[in-house]
Amino acid sequence: MVSWKVLGIAPALLLATACADPKPGIDDAATDAAASEAAFFAEETPAARAGASFCGRTTSAKELADVAAGDLATAHAMRNYGANAAELVLGLMHNLTTRGLDFAKISSHRIAFRAESNEYVLTTGDGGTLAFTLSLAESLGALKAGEKLPVNFFARESYLRGVKKGAKGEVDYDAGPLFELIDGEVEFGGGSTEDYRFMLRSGLVRFELVAETSFVEAGGGEFRLRLETAKALTLTELARRLDEGGVELAYDASTYVDEARGHEEIIDRAPFTMRRDDSGWLWEGSYDATIHRNGDIRYVRATTSGRQQSYAELFCDLGRKTKAATAVHDLDLQGGTIALEGEAGAGILYTRAK
Predict the structure, then answer these.
(1) Structure confidence at residue 81 (pLDDT)
(2) Which of 103, 277, 302, 326 shows the greatest Cβ crowding within 10 Å of its Cβ?
(3) 251 near 225, Cβ under 8 Å?
(4) Would you call 32 helix, strand, or coil by DSSP?
(5) Between vectors from CA 158 to CA 157 and to CA 163, what angle results, nearest 5°?
(6) Collapsing DSSP states into helix, strand and coil, what is residue 262?
């Protein structure tokens, strides 16, 4: 359920309040529904009770809060899924490039190879999946540039076969189909012939992510998200971009539908970048969306970040020239404040459905 109330405060104070850093451990959404509704009627202003003009029609404060909360749910899902997915799979590729392929460690990742499509499926901690492909940036022996790797990139036998250790510690083996991807010497350790690692010629391997997921949030709305890299990158280039300007990804053909509230949000475009710095992973992006709600259409242009507050501007027209309102989502994407364009003295709080 959405929690909301109207505040009769000056615009400058509203902006200062909306832009303040959230207090750690404070969650406005924790207020129960009855208390939230009571707070609204206790503080409601006469103007808000009469309704406000929103794209040419009178709209209640609750409706404005619901519109903002719907977009808040979209921003939350895109940032959390995108950031977690990108950190997991891009982090894995970064480690492969900088530390090499270590079979003792790679086994901790649940990666399945689909031979029929030559793609990989990584299972996440919550049971979700991420699909990606690996292809050749340059021809390698009988394999042609642009071809997907025909064998499992993460399997030992793709590189070395028939590994045997002699009495004096010498190691014999036959070359596998991806043997030429090994850069330098193979390092063997321990007593097992399966315990070895090597660096990769990562500039020869091209990575591309296409991940799809669907899930129902706690409030009842259903998300269908499609996440993909903006373009294929070699593992070398991917690692460099993660440490510098960022790797570009985008959502495509993604939607959020909450039938109970009559809310449907279609993501028209949503590019973002993921990069690493001394503070960890950083998500930054923007999105355009179209909201269909109880017969009305609203258009959104928004920015979102993992370290700054997100802003969602709501427009009345497809060209996004007539701005109707601005929603300032809190940094933790659990709530925020929406204010009508040109309206002084009133702002509406909302929280994400739990």
Answers:
(1) 86
(2) 302
(3) yes
(4) coil
(5) 35
(6) coil
